[in-house]
Write a structure and sequence with these properties.
This protein has 399 residues and is an alpha/beta fold. The chain has 2 domains: 149 residues, Aspartate Aminotransferase, domain 1, CATH 3.90.1150; 239 residues, Aspartate Aminotransferase, domain 2 (3-Layer(aba) Sandwich). 42% of the residues lie in helices and 16% in strands. The protein is built from 14 helices and 15 strands. A 7-stranded mixed beta sheet has the order 2-8-7-6-5-3-4, sandwiched between helices. A hairpin with a 2-residue loop joins strand 10 and strand 11. Helix 3 runs antiparallel to helix 11, helix 4 runs parallel beside helix 11 and helix 5 packs across helix 10. The longest helix has 21 residues. The chain is globular, with a radius of gyration of 21 Å. The model has no long low-confidence stretch (mean pLDDT 96). The site of glutamic acid has 10 residues, from helix 2.
Length: 399
Amino acid sequence: MKELSNVACSVEPSATLSVDSLAKKLKAEGEDIVGFGAGEPDFETPDNIKEAGIRAIREGKTRYTPAAGMKELREACAYRLKQDFGLDYDYKQIVIGSGAKHVLYTALTALINPGDEVIIPAPYWVSYYEMVRMVCGHPVIIRTKEAQQFKITPEQLENAITEKTKLFMLNNPSNPTGMLYSRDELKALADICVKHDIYIMSDEIYYCLVYDNKKFTSIASLGPEIKKRTIVVNGVSKAYAMTGWRIGFAAANPEIAGVMGNLLSHSASAPSTISQVAATEALTGPQDTVEAMRKVFEERRNYIVERMNKIDGVSCISPDGAFYIMMNIKKLFGRNICGHLINNADDFAYAFLAKGKVAVVPCTAFGTSSFVRWTYATSMENIKKGLDRLEEFLKGEQK
Ligand code: PMP
Ligand code: GLU
């Protein structure tokens, strides 16, 4: 038989989803695994949103909507962008997709020609790298260190730019690092992008999960020149615990939004109408559950950071937002733990799952091999159990 697409065949499966399904499979087989794989809020979708979805079914809102999404939802997205960041978008500049992941992919398809360079700061969310390759773009990675809070400097951005650079992928706050760029830091990056006429994909899916009273700024709000080059990507998965409803959105200049709408008209015909109605309620209804969940995440972060830093051999810096911790495991390299020689993040994650019965994501998939990622989008009980098991696992060192 003839061969499949070269590009498609070179794509790796998502490491976050793979770890998650492996942990779930082992659990289903009766293993006592504690999962810190995929970052997915462990809260229920708030009742008012669920009810809106149920009403949509009862009221017969079960037909196609326009490809870029129903007007009410696009207006609701524009309303939130105005309320939360002071950003003005007409509803026609908003495009709805089946989750932020789908929106990111559609935006990349709209922007990238084969060979265009896309700058991605590392550690990066695993899907950015593969999605850029899926649209035949060329990922250009900027490495960052823990000592610089995993944030790129303006000099690093400037040095990575070539004539082929089309786009800069920004994830603020970041998955997997949890770090937040301040307004001043964003301004410096924005100025460079405007100077070189580069688009910015600003993935702001974790914008409402920011701790220590820090303030989130949307890079698009820093002036008209940066706004017209920015594709703001957001969604309801994290803020409203709606991962399974699959609604994300982009806000962009009319040209980009129009091209994305055309692409969606042939590839998706809009996400589920029922989910769109529920997401409209999420964005326009009471917002108190968002803050309640944020507070719980902050308490969990405080606990995990404090305890992890007391455990010999591992450490972490305190993330500003999102729900991930990057655990530094460099000190463990060259050691034999529970019969497994640890030389990188994959070795650690494998051994920790096999012997410690805890699933974490090796950051190799995020562009660095000295860290593993834990998510604290899980109960305090699980977090305590996971850290207890880490202590036990590390006691299994063989000299
Ligand atoms: N961007 C980032 C950085 C993420 O971590 C996620 C998590 N899945 C997404 C986008 C996609 O979210 P969803 O497709 O569930 O809206
Ligand atoms: N974004 C989450 C994570 O990084 C969910 C899994 C995924 O979509 O990749 O774990």
